[in-house]
Specification:
Largest sheet: 5 strands, parallel
Number of strands: 14
Radius of gyration: 18 Å
Bound molecules: magnesium ion
Structural class: alpha/beta
Number of helices: 9
Order of helices and strands: EEEHEHEEEHHEEHEEHEHEHEH
Length: 270
């Protein structure tokens, strides 16, 4: 039996320069480790202390990176610690086992989506028709499972996001706004469903989770104990639930705190 630690990555454990939210004088800033390079440029960071904590965690629990990223976007992240046996990508659409996608799991996900929600093409068409090029920078489809837009956040009308969320809800889809990205994701495509599968396969006695966005809420609810940082979509909505601890830290220091909490819980007597 083992402890499963399923954590969101972006703005939970790893942070872009824009999301670091460092507030101390520069001379007292923590040393940062770059854990993702994209197009030959550094993109994501964690503190060096967080990197050490993550290595310890990987040695003592089943650490499961749990992300909305596509497999390709996930695979360019270079996390410290032992290579994870399991990773959850595409918001649960792909379960990687020793780095390879599990075909049975993916087939089950596709069957469920076909049964329970409107097709991706309908959502894509709606986004293309209604999103204003004034504030949309890119239209993207991820793994043929869901869609997202990259937007100019300052120009994005709040009203449009609300209308999109209502339109999507009627079709079995959900909307999440994270930084410069607006995601439209099928309701049944969840991190929690994939976590339950990992817990079943690994024979989990305890599951822990952390995340910052609306797409993490089901994950936080599914785990025995969860944490969320003081920033992000859930914090903006003052979201909480029994079993979810709200941390005061914001930005890259929240990532460090979350890892400390994981380790503390893993080591606590059960
Ligand atoms: Mg996140």
């Amino acid at each position: 039996m083992s402890v499963i630690v399923a954590s969101d990555l972006d703005r939970t454990l790893i942070y872009s320069a824009a999301a670091l939210a460092l507030t101390m004088p520069d001379a007292r800033a923590p040393r940062l480790l770059c854990v993702e390079v994209h197009e030959s440029k550094p993109l994501s960071y964690m503190t060096e202390t967080a990197a050490e904590l993550l290595t310890e965690l990987g040695d003592t629990a089943v650490f499961v990176p749990t992300t909305t990223r596509t497999r390709k976007q996930y695979q360019r992240i270079n996390l410290p610690g032992p290579p994870p046996q399991f990773a959850i990508c595409a918001n649960g659409g792909h379960l990687l086992v020793d780095g390879e996608t599990d075909r049975d799991w993916h087939a089950r996900v596709l069957a469920r989506l076909a049964d329970e929600c409107a097709p991706l093409s309908e959502v894509q068409e709606h986004l293309l028709r209604t999103a204003d090029p004034v504030w949309v920078r890119k239209h993207r489809v991820a793994e043929d499972l869901f869609a997202y837009l990259v937007v100019e956040r300052e120009l994005l009308p709040e009203e449009w996001v609300k209308e999109l969320a209502a339109w999507a809800e009627n079709r079995g889809w959900t909307v999440s706004l994270q930084g410069r990205k607006i995601y439209a994701v099928p309701v049944p495509l969840t991190k929690s469903a994939a976590l339950r599968e990992v817990a079943r396969r690994a024979g989990a006695e305890l599951t822990l989770a952390a995340g910052d966005s609306l797409l993490d809420a089901d994950l936080l609810l599914a785990a025995d104990q969860s944490w969320r940082p003081g920033h992000g979509e859930l914090a903006d909505a003052s979201w909480s639930a029994p079993g979810v601890r709200v941390l005061p830290e914001r930005g890259v220091l929240a990532g460090e705190r979350i890892l400390r909490e994981f380790l503390h819980r893993v080591r606590a007597p059960r």
